[in-house]
Specification:
This protein is mainly β and 1006 residues long. The protein contains nine helices and 57 strands. Helices cover 8% and strands 54% of the residues.
Length: 1006
């Protein structure tokens, strides 16, 4: 590795020394700012030296630096979509920097009498930045984000082509690109990686933490540059904070409220911003100092209704006799003598969440620019999400021998109901700090930066578990005073053809025997689980880059860039000291004595079910606090949970790159290579539930365990070549072609060699880390056609293809290998094998598809219809993945062969129609995500699928006075649920309703 860097450094020094000798004299620099005639910055405006290939584009603040300009009177051409082009002659002096600002005006011939509104202006800024970029990317400006009723970053991203989002509690939470899994995307703040602190320990940052209104823009880069971090197979999402732009102060304030139909509550929102530049001078007429600050606050009481059925299994059916009893071997057989089977959910749960979500965010940016060629910038971004609420969970478990009741229902010999109430306090925080500096001199530009990110998720979740007796018909006896016949079916599943699962007890006690089998008087407090966990991640990054402008063959403008970076990352997961498991001692504590309500939610799951009674959290908490002697700590289980959850991982990534970009008339060629080395060190524990007497874990008591360290290290080096071509067919039409490479590191929880055995003996699953995981590596091919419409619009179409080696997927299935130490020998009739969950490397996968975008003002229509604007995109993606190589000798249960790549949705689409004038805007938008595989099982019928989903939103605004708007928004007006199923839509895995959100408020900019 050191030899490679040494050779690269020598080659760079030789190249730089050769080029410097050619351009040491006779050239100057032009700097400045490009604005419209109101003083607003125009990001993405292009400025070129007329008759040459020398040019650049403005940044978010409309500023530019153009180097390597021959001395003399030079004519510059400035272009911006929707504006009249500008040509001006400026005198450039050798060895000096000249500052000149340019003002542009709207092209009234193209735009007609329609005033550019906020809807069009946001589109204008985004398209101009996208048009001048060297790689394939989409840009969402702050105005564009404000155009839709999106409250966080994930929801704003869903409007872009090729983006699929995941949802949590009715909000967007994560993003996937072009039919690939979420961990193939790198999440950045101002170009540097933000660490994840999700509950599962995933690398991806949780995007519902960040309010979209504190950002200046977002970029979705679908082809990486050599200067980008390489660990992004699908691309990067880069969130940019703003800087002050004007000597005139700019202020904004937004106050709003609304209504949640699911919980019948009203939220509150507040947003404010301020920016201004100070101290103009001859060296920097725009002001040497800049200050920008944004804050965002929202609070909403919401929640969700959810059904979970995470255990669907294949069972052999038994027949019922007329007397209601069966024999132990009385299996149902088909014509060939084979046992008839059914796929049934052995454990399903109703969750009712009543929650107050508070989201806070803010940015502060301070910059010092002593002149127009140098700048030092410090920016900080903070975001916080708090979820405080109560969760009620009603859990049904059916086990033992399963009977065909003969009427389409199936009965179980064992049944139990568990009622849990949990106080949930979850806080997620992100801190991001950037310190950047840059300077230009002669033909050089140097920049360097330091970045620090800290992310943390703390969950305080004390759960009180009430449960009925385990009604088990294994003997002619009485349970809780209710006589039970031997092998009598205790309960049935009701209407398995419906996604709204229900259980019905078959035994009806007499009045002398007490209430029904699931009456609150039957439940006793079994345990208290304090699931108090913390997830942390931090990233310290140092980087330095240099670029040198030169002319290839004394004619074609070129830029040679090179740089180095070090990322020093840390992740940990741990149980807080308060995270204990507690037993219940003494006399039974009954649910019937702590009833909060007899009917918590009669219209549960959009009116399909009645949740039933719920316990009083405050009263049971008070009893828990006042009677500590009744709740001794389960030391063995607490110790085991601490060890199972713990890991720490240190990942150091050192990287270097070199790239060159040359403009050959209409053809731009960018080529380069990046080299990254990753060094990983991690700490964890392996926890075995182990029986010393038998030498196996399968029959061990719950308090028999072995805890051993599982620390290790690994490292690898990856070389990432890159080639990208851009050809301008005309001023507004561009062809792009790219070959890029990228990789994706495994999640730390998947990598550390830990073994976690579930404490619930009836669930029977283990999770194993896999220290043999390799990073996924992708070869990417992209083609894109773009045509920018003069009336501010875009027509584009593209093709993409990815070949991914060693892609990662999560596998889940029953243990069938007798040599596995967790294989249970000599199963009892009502006992099942354990399920194994583990991440694996697939052999390879291919993803291919196309993207189509059409955004345009319909200014060609007559009359008022010319104020209509259409925004639409469609993405088609397909994939083929080889999990493992099938052979004749392999059992088909152990080989899936070719299948669909997890995360790949075949169709995604967005459509929005807006009517906008200078005073009024009305918009309807639709978002469609097709179904995709969430995770793979050992067989096709065990795959988890996220179902297709439509979301329809409406929003409107009207200008009351100049600068002040009244707005209204309706989100998810169809009350579309989030639905995950196992194998087929008839097998619900998760079904969640969050209701319709209505919001209104006043925004004032002055």
């Amino acid at each position: 590795m050191r030899k490679n860097f040494s050779r690269m450094a020598i080659a760079l020094l030789l190249l730089v020394s050769m080029t410097m000798s050619v351009f040491a004299q006779g050239h100057g620099i032009l700097t400045g700012r490009i604005t419209d005639d109101t003083g607003d910055a125009l990001p993405g405006a292009s400025i070129t030296v007329k008759g040459t290939t020398i040019g650049t584009a403005t940044d978010l603040n409309g500023q530019f630096t153009l180097r390597n300009i021959s001395a003399g009177n030079v004519t510059f051409v400035i272009a911006y979509l929707g504006f009249d082009s500008v040509e001006e002659t400026v005198q450039i002096r050798a060895g000096e920097t000249t500052n000149r600002n340019f003002v542009m005006s709207e092209n009234t011939a193209l735009l007609g009498e329609v005033v550019i509104t906020g809807v069009v202006a946001g589109q204008q800024r985004a398209l101009n930045q996208q048009r001048t970029a060297s790689n394939m990317m989409q840009v969402v400006s702050s105005d564009e984000m404000g155009r839709f009723p999106d409250r966080n970053v994930a929801e704003a991203l869903q409007r872009l082509s090729g983006v699929t989002i995941t949802r949590s509690r009715g909000e967007g939470s994560g993003a996937q690109l072009r039919g690939t899994p979420g961990h193939f995307v790198n999440i950045l703040v101002n170009g540097e990686q933000m660490m994840g602190a999700a509950e599962g320990g995933l690398r991806n940052a949780t995007l519902d933490v960040i309010p979209s209104d504190i950002l200046a823009s977002m970029e979705v880069q679908k082809t990486l540059l050599p200067s980008n971090d390489g660990d992004a197979v699908a691309g990067v999402i880069n969130m940019r904070t703003g800087t002050a732009r004007s000597l005139t102060p700019r202020r904004t304030i937004d106050i709003g409220s609304g209504y949640s139909t699911l919980r019948s509550t009203m939220p509150a929102t507040l947003r404010a911003g301020y920016q201004q530049r100070f101290s103009p001078s001859t060296s920097n007429q725009d002001g040497r100092f800049g200050v920008l600050a944004n804050i965002s606050y929202s609070q909403a009481r919401n929640g969700y209704d959810r059904l979970e059925a995470h255990q669907w299994e294949v069972v052999d059916l038994r027949a019922m006799h007329a007397n209601g009893e069966v024999g132990t071997a009385n299996f149902l057989l088909d014509e060939d003598g084979n046992r008839i089977q059914a796929v049934l959910p052995f454990d399903f749960r109703y969750r009712y969440q009543d929650d107050t979500r508070t989201r806070t965010g803010g940015t502060v940016t301070l910059d010092y620019a002593p002149n127009t060629t140098s700048k030092i910038l410090f920016s900080a971004m903070y975001s916080r999400r708090e979820d405080d609420g109560v969760r009620y969970r009603r859990r049904h478990r059916l086990r033992g021998e399963i009977y065909d009741m003969g009427d389409g229902e199936f009965g179980a010999r064992r049944a139990q109901t568990i009622m849990q109430v949990t106080e949930q306090n979850i806080t997620v925080e992100n801190w991001n700090f950037n310190l950047d500096g840059e300077t230009s001199f002669d033909n050089w530009k140097l920049d360097a930066g330091l970045f620090y990110n800290f992310s943390e998720r703390v969950g305080i979740n004390p759960a009180f578990n009430f449960q009925t007796p385990d009604y088990n018909a294994n003997a002619n006896t009485a349970i809780d005073g209710v006589p039970i016949r031997n092998r009598q079916p205790m309960a049935t599943w009701v209407d398995l053809s419906s996604r709204y699962l229900q259980m019905r007890y078959l035994v009806t006690p007499t009045a002398e025997q007490g209430g029904a089998m699931d009456d609150p008087s039957r439940f006793t407090l079994n345990s208290v689980d304090n699931s108090n966990n913390v997830f942390r991640g931090r990233n310290f990054t140092a980087r330095a880059n240099a670029s040198y402008d030169w002319l290839f063959r004394d004619e074609f403008a070129s830029t040679l860039s090179f740089g180095a970076k070090g990322k020093f990352m840390f992740n940990e997961r741990n149980r807080l000291p308060s995270g204990t498991h507690v037993r219940v001692a003494g006399d039974p504590i009954r649910f019937g004595d702590y009833v909060y309500t007899e009917s918590l939610a009669p219209n549960f799951l959009n009116g399909h079910l009645n949740f039933g009674p719920a316990p009083d959290l405050k009263r049971i908490q008070a009893f828990y606090r006042d009677n500590p002697d009744r709740f001794p700590i389960d030391e063995a289980r607490t110790e085991r949970t601490f060890a199972q959850l713990f890991y720490q991982g240190y990942e150091n990534v050192t990287a270097g790159y070199v790239m060159n970009q040359t403009q050959f008339n209409n053809l731009r060629v960018l080529t380069g290579v990046r080299v990254e080395r990753t060094d990983i060190e991690y700490k964890a524990y392996t926890v075995f539930r182990y029986n010393e007497a038998t030498g196996r874990p399968d029959e061990s008591p719950l308090d028999a365990q072995r805890i051993t360290p599982a620390d290790s290290t690994m490292n690898y080096t990856i070389v990432l070549p890159n080639l990208q071509l851009r050809y301008d067919l005309g001023r507004s039409t561009i062809l792009r072609l790219a070959y890029t490479t990228g990789y994706s590191r495994p999640h730390l929880p998947d990598l550390v060699p830990s073994v976690q055995l579930n404490d619930d003996e009836d669930v029977n699953f283990i999770e194993m880390g896999n220290p043999h995981l390799k990073p996924a590596f992708a070869h990417n091919f992209d083609f894109l056609f773009e045509h920018y419409l003069p009336q501010v619009g875009l027509l584009s179409g593209g093709l993409f293809y990815k070949h991914i080696n060693h892609f990662l997927y999560r596998s889940e299935g029953l243990i069938t290998d007798p040599n596995n130490p967790y294989f249970i020998h000599n199963l009892e009739p009502d006992q099942r094998q354990m399920r194994l969950r583990q991440s694996q490397n697939g052999e390879y996968a291919t993803v291919y598809g196309m993207e189509i975008t059409m955004n345009s003002r319909l200014s060609f229509l007559p009359g008022f219809l010319r104020n209509l604007m259409v925004t639409s995109n469609y993405t088609f993606a397909n994939s083929s993945a080889m999990v493992d190589k099938p052979t004749v000798a392999e059992d088909e249960d152990h080989s899936r062969g070719r299948l669909r790549l997890p995360g790949q949705a075949k169709h995604t689409a967005n459509f929005a129609l807006a009517y906008s004038t200078n005073r009024f805007t009305l918009q309807g938008s639709a978002n469609f995500n097709d179904k995709f595989i969430h995770s793979l099982g050992s067989r096709e019928e065990q795959d988890l699928w996220v179902d297709k989903r439509w979301q329809i939103d409406l929003n409107a605004s009207v200008q009351l006075i100049p600068g002040m708007q009244l707005y209204a928004e309706a989100v998810n007006i169809l009350n579309a649920p989030a639905f995950i199923y196992t194998g087929s839509r008839e097998r619900t895995y998760e079904l969640e309703f969050t209701g319709v959100f209505l919001r209104t408020g006043i925004s004032y900019r002055f």
